[in-house]
Design a protein that fits this description.
This is Fido domain-containing protein. Helix content is 65%, strand content 0%. The chain contains 12 helices and no strands.
Length: 285
């Protein structure tokens, strides 16, 4: 495993200010604003979040090296619990149903949209959130006997949880925190199962909780599975930037390449979210 050297905040902020990164982020923020005020979310935001959870889980399944279609996962998500017996599911389906549960439970705990009375919203503490997410993600695999319970909600890498906590809670813009935690968990197996999916989900949570995507309908992982070479190249640049041998300029450039692709992925996720809102509004998915 390549050594990951923590970078100082000044380097991360310099990367975030690169012109290409600023442009990509501005495009993403506009797409997210268009999504937030989409007519389809006025009354049907809960249905839109439910569909986004299915789309995001499908993308995460691909990110984890398994394959399932949106239609197949949608059908699985609507089955009665008795029809989800481990013997009835293949390994990809067992992983997919767990990833969907994590996305659905994440969305279910987000602040409601367009509420007439604003209810107090208290985000879960990070350790409790991570434990709940990982239990959900692994639930289908555990039920099928494909992994042991000792692999669930326990880090495989000593010190990994402290790094995640520092990234998520850093006094940095939400975009930087989200992009960093997503990349870190993709290249570092903090969890022996679904580490990349955990990173993407925590990044999504950061952007939702900190008001970047209040809709919770953007499908942020989709572009990472449709433009795999671009995603992998940007991630490799980020990884090299965090190597002890990287000089300051190389570190800024490498991190910036990942930040740019990450922002492009969020923009694409917002566009997919707009499509979901349109179809929900029309009553057709």
């Amino acid at each position: 495993m390549t050594q990951i050297e923590a970078l100082n905040h000044a380097t991360l902020q310099a990367a975030a200010q690169l012109p290409s990164v600023l442009h990509a982020r501005q495009q993403a923020e506009q797409a997210l604003a268009d999504l937030r005020f989409h007519e389809g979310l006025r009354r049907q935001w809960e249905a839109a979040r439910a569909e986004a959870a299915i789309r995001e889980a499908t993308a995460l399944c691909l990110l984890e090296g398994a394959r399932i279609s949106v239609d197949d996962l949608r059908e699985l998500s609507m089955r009665d619990a008795r029809d989800l017996a481990p013997t009835a599911l293949d390994p990809s389906q067992s992983l997919a149903i767990g990833l969907w549960r994590a996305q659905w439970n994440l969305a279910s705990n987000c602040a409601p949209l367009n509420a007439r009375v604003r209810a107090p919203h208290r985000p879960r503490p990070l350790p409790a959130l991570m434990s709940a997410l990982h239990r959900d993600m692994c639930s289908g695999l555990v039920a099928a006997g494909l992994i042991g319970a000792d692999q669930v909600a326990f880090p495989a890498l000593p010190g990994g949880l402290a790094v995640i906590r520092d990234l998520v809670q850093a006094q940095l813009p939400a975009w930087i925190c989200a992009a960093e935690v997503s990349a870190y968990l993709r290249v570092t197996p903090v969890f022996s199962v679904a580490s990349a999916a955990m990173g993407a989900t925590l990044a999504r949570w950061v952007l939702i909780e900190r008001g970047v995507d209040p809709s919770a309908v953007a499908v942020m992982s989709a572009l990472h599975t449709t433009e795999v070479p671009g995603s992998e190249e940007a991630l490799a640049a980020w990884q090299q930037a965090h190597h002890p041998s990287a000089d300051a300029d190389a570190a800024i450039d490498g991190v910036g390449r990942w930040y740019e692709f990450f922002a492009r992925a969020v923009e694409e996720g917002a566009r997919i979210g707009q499509d979901i809102a349109l179809h929900v509004q029309a009553g057709r998915l």
